[in-house]
Each structure stands twice: as structure tokens, then as C-alpha cells.
Design goal:
Length: 178
């Protein structure tokens, strides 16, 4: 039989590929910090103190423990404040905090993350971002992309300043070059 559907091969059978997985969107900011990861972690894991230093979270409460809920308000540049309740999915001291919440009535799962990558004993990279998943993930994140990126950048700068000041106070580490 010569002709026939393109997806059929006599020796291999039907070559049907499943549809591609739904595309989401990742929005992230990264910044180098001249302080050890444990100094950054001490600041990050104290959720109740976020309003003291973090420009995008004027209200926050909760405990970093798997399955616990964090409640926070987010103030992004040029957008109204949003209230969130997120569940802690994973955390590792001096490395990461991942939480999950949903938007658009639960149709779009969002993984929000804060990660610390140790580069050397006295410096690290701090990352904060969100992953919007599911069929509507990309469209849900699209309208927030610029504001989120600016907010995450401001968060990173604020955490960097606080961690470096704490490190200088504790250890006398040199001031970073801006």
C-alpha cells in the first residue's frame, strides 16, 4: 500500500505524537549578594519581618514549614495590592523556599520561589520569581510580567542591602561595589 496517512509506517505502526504540554511562563530576577547564604536565609525565612525590608510585601505572616500557609499582601509597581495565601511546598535552609498558590479561580497554578545559590563562602546569588503553569499560565502571567520583574528586582536589591549590612555588622565583610 503506497499512499495513506503520513503518521502511519507499515513496520512501526502509527506514529501519533501526544499534544505538546501546556506552556507556562517564568518571571524571575537574580542578584549577586556579598554575604553568605545563611545570612540571606535568616532574612528570608523570617516571613513576619518581610514588611520591614521588602518593598513588595507590606504585610506577611506564616511559618516556613512544609504544608503551612503563608499569607501576604503584594504591592507591585503600578498595580493594586493583591492578597495571597500560599502553601509551603518545599524549603531547604540556606537554599530555597517554594510555595504554591492558584490564580484565576484555581485554573492557573503558580509556584513562587526564592532561591539562594552559594558561589563561595561569603557570596551567593539570590533569585526570586514565579512559574505560571497550565493552559492559561502564559496569558495569566503576560499582563503581570513587567510589574513582577520590577517588583522582584526591587525585592532583590532590598534583600541584598539588608544581608550585606548584616554581614558587615557580624563579620566586618567588605562593602560591595555598586
Amino acid at each position: 500500500m503506497t499512499g495513506g496517512p503520513d503518521f502511519y509506517n507499515r513496520r512501526k505502526g502509527f506514529d501519533i505524537k501526544p499534544p505538546a504540554p501546556p506552556e507556562g511562563m517564568k518571571i524571575e530576577s537574580r542578584i549577586g549578594v556579598q554575604a553568605p547564604a545563611d545570612v540571606v536565609w535568616d532574612i528570608l525565612q523570617d516571613v513576619a519581618a518581610w514588611p520591614d525590608w521588602n518593598p513588595i510585601y507590606p504585610k506577611a505572616s506564616g511559618v516556613v514549614r512544609i504544608g503551612e500557609r503563608l499569607t501576604y499582601a503584594r504591592a507591585m509597581p503600578g498595580r493594586p495590592h493583591d492578597q495571597f495565601q500560599a502553601t509551603v511546598l518545599d524549603w531547604t535552609p540556606n537554599e530555597l523556599l517554594h510555595v504554591r498558590r492558584a490564580v484565576m479561580g484555581g485554573l492557573v497554578p503558580v509556584i513562587q520561589y526564592w532561591e539562594i545559590d552559594t558561589l563561595a563562602e561569603e557570596n551567593c546569588v539570590f533569585s526570586s520569581g514565579e512559574l505560571y503553569a497550565g493552559w492559561l499560565g502564559r496569558s495569566a502571567a503576560q499582563s503581570l510580567r513587567r510589574a513582577l520583574r520590577r517588583g522582584f528586582e526591587a525585592e532583590g536589591e532590598a534583600l541584598k542591602a539588608r544581608a550585606e549590612a548584616a554581614w558587615r555588622e557580624r563579620r566586618g565583610a567588605p562593602k560591595s561595589q555598586a
